[in-house]
Amino acid sequence: MSNATSWDQIDTPAACVDMNVAEANVRAYQAYCNQHGLDLRPHIKTHKLPSLADYQIAQGAVGITCQKISEAEAMLDGMRTKDVDLLITYNILGAAKVARLKALSQRCRLSVVADNATVIAGLAAGFDASAPLDVYVECNTGADRCGVDSAEAALQLADQINAAAGLRFAGLMTYPPAGKIAEVRHWFAEAQAVFAAKSVAIPRITTGGSPDMWQAHEMDLADELRVGTCVYNDRSLVERGTAKWQNCALTVLATVVSVPAENRAVIDAGSKVLTSDQLGLNGHGAVLGRDDIVIDSLSEEHGRLVSDGPIDLQVGDKLRIVPNHVCVVVNMLDELVEIRDGQVIGPLPVAARGQVR
Amino acid sequence: MSNATSWDQIDTPAACVDMNVAEANVRAYQAYCNQHGLDLRPHIKTHKLPSLADYQIAQGAVGITCQKISEAEAMLDGMRTKDVDLLITYNILGAAKVARLKALSQRCRLSVVADNATVIAGLAAGFDASAPLDVYVECNTGADRCGVDSAEAALQLADQINAAAGLRFAGLMTYPPAGKIAEVRHWFAEAQAVFAAKSVAIPRITTGGSPDMWQAHEMDLADELRVGTCVYNDRSLVERGTAKWQNCALTVLATVVSVPAENRAVIDAGSKVLTSDQLGLNGHGAVLGRDDIVIDSLSEEHGRLVSDGPIDLQVGDKLRIVPNHVCVVVNMLDELVEIRDGQVIGPLPVAARGQVR
After folding, report:
1. Considering chain B, what percentage of its residues have pLDDT values greater than 70?
2. Which CATH class is domain A36-231?
């Protein structure tokens, strides 16, 4: 594949990224944020590419978001941008990880989040006043994952952070539930009132989520957005109306290896490429140009395609598939195939793949 | 993690393999096959470890099964066994892949499968009589994935294989549906009759599937079994009654990073470790010792745990999780943690991880 110069020569299965589309996606959302006075801090979990993070910052992003320390380390290893502003939206726990966080803080402008006193105490033990760490309090605005449930609980943690010599309260962070902008706005309005009553400043409010990305300005209390998926887009965002098929930068190229029945075919991409993430959708991806086909089951190396009538595919046919959830597909492969101006450029190593710690 | 010498020092999330359990699983199933006069050709997709494949062969396996060429290449690169007998149970298609297959055939005793004339023609073009390739015909015995639907169709492909100078018909292969041993037996009995009527020998019948592994002898027409998952076992096999919890060699070690509500906790292992494979089960893995907990949702780096009553977990607690489907978990990580005699040995690189082509 490294010598591939045309689509025909791409060895399948492969995940192909049209970099023109990806860069257009970056510019379009940066323009939206500029228009609405919002800071953009893209989550790199979708692309995991230092070069694309550099591009995002060059277009106006204030920094990047990572989810784990190892992911941040891999990104900094590859990025050309100096003095990156980097937020890790995760509870970092344990002395070993806090030591790595300390080392990381010397390579970038670092901030993290916390939603409990144990995590804050651990961070406080690893940092001192000479180089304090910025810590956001994570708030549960309805997604019911991490985050404190009330403004009062957030204030209590903010006080704990401000009381630690090595920490600075940076503001409030949330990963919001989709389709609930009014509720998220209400949550933060209440938090502002509770904090103001105790004269505790909230330096910044940061929120995320590609599903509601074009309505983010309606949640007018946020300073910053941390969208990830929209750099490539995927079937879940198209089905939601957030993106169109032509905005999907990543497609999985697969070959039909068997047509064992009139209404059934099998491709060489299974869960090791497409993953089992369904995000509530029917099937395991959209076959471009073939709305009649459902990828109805995956095993590790086989994808099964079915249709109501004759499937009209031949062994050897190649198909392009928009995955349900693009972030997890990127994480499956050591390298993607880069496309520019319709040309196959070559392999694109996924620098921060598989970084879970 | 590379310096970890105790469980406490393992950085989480991590997938830990108790090699004593894995080796006992290998020996137990080899003994079953020996008792019933069955050849065992384990599928390496579960462990992806050359050293464990060597162990399987040393215990009596006749060879190994791989699913893709790249997987076979990675295994041979690392194995110490000389002259490995290696079956790739996949339709290999396209000149580039057939050329790689040819190169592979010079490194081992190789066989492949085919379920259509296009694949056979491609193989025939790449091999010649000086070193013919063994080709099985894949049969659909009810799993409705790949495979020909009838004994007559199988015979037609066997004839095509035997007519090609560079190919040899090796026999019939199936990936059987679970719980349908009688039906699979019936399929092959019919095939034997159809082939015998035309005086075409079936050198070998090979079948697979861990779910029915302990009943495999009832399908008494098979010469060979290609089980994979049972080297480690997982929640799906325990729930099916095929294995017990103590036979599960791989557990995911995770840390509780948040307890945001009385009945909810969040661990640092999400779909990037546990994957979204549910195999029909409720939740995303079994928390050992905590039957009351369900891992009810995963995002990439978060696993959400819920219980009916108080969840009784503290931030910092470590949990061991038996995944629903172990093969796909192994594929997520560049390295596992090897455990022997209760001791942490160190990192175990997953040599054939992510090999999809």
Report:
1. 99
2. alpha beta
